[in-house]
Amino acid sequence: MKTSESITNIAAALLAAQQEMPHPKKTAQNPHLRNRFADLPGVIDTVKESLNKHGIVVVQSVGGSCGYSNESAAQPQDVAVTTRLIHAESGEWVEDEIGQGVSDQKGLNISQSIGSAITYLRRYSISAMAFVASEPDDDGNEVKGGDVKAASPSADFDL
Prior knowledge:
Layout: E1 2-3, H1 8-20, E2 28-29, E3 36-37, H2 40-53, E4 56-63, E5 77-87, E6 93-102, H3 110-130, H4 141-144, H5 148-151
Antiparallel strand pairs: 1-6, 2-3, 4-5, 5-6
Helix pairs in contact: 1-2, 2-3
């Protein structure tokens, strides 16, 4: 995480925002895992009002090697999203970057895969920066190849 030289004012504003900010409603459903999650508009709607009320502006930018490689359109690309929270009054800020490799997916060309990755990274990044949960907690089972639904019995319920 990177920050401005001082974060005194933005830290106080983030505290105030987080004290009143609910977790986003899980209104979307993953067709593969069948778990519910908060989509990007839902996360933005949840965090923006409280952050803005306390003078915090959210800026997200996209970077990485999002263009096609010279060798083949099917070559993996890197995509990254930087999320910066800025305190409007003091100019103080905190930011972090999240990235991943992207390649063609079944039924999608590389541009569509990159767009999907950007949406995913934006959602995860702002959720982490605002300290809200937009995904079910599967206790790491998906990464381990386990059964997500078995590890997350409340995945179908909104928080």
